[in-house]
Write a structure and sequence with these properties.
- With about 60 residues, the chain is α+β, with helices and mostly antiparallel strands.
- The chain has one domain.
- About 25% of the residues lie in helices and about 30% in strands.
- It has one helix and four strands; from the N terminus they run E-E-E-E-H.
- The protein has a four-stranded antiparallel β-sheet.
- Strand 3 and strand 4 form a beta hairpin.
- The longest helix has 14 residues.
- The termini are far apart.
- This is DUF397 domain-containing protein.
- It comes from Actinomadura spongiicola.
- It holds the Pfam family DUF397.
């Protein structure tokens, strides 16, 4: 598991109460996703192709 994620970005679709997800990138290109509502949120990790496929499916099904 990659621990060195940086440049965490909050989703534009976040709730005004602060409940949101953030995505960050590791130096090896891995994308991490975490839930900001949890103090020690697990981080889901995606390769660049996996991340692209996930976003494509989300956009298609929205």
């Amino acid at each position: 598991m990659t621990e060195n994620f940086s440049s965490w970005r909050k989703s534009r679709h976040s709730e005004p109460n602060g409940g949101c997800i953030e995505a960050g990138r590791a130096s090896d290109g891995t994308i991490g996703v975490r839930d900001t509502k949890l103090d020690h949120s697990p981080i889901l990790e995606f390769s660049t192709p996996e991340w692209a496929q996930l976003l494509e499916r989300i956009r298609r099904d929205a």
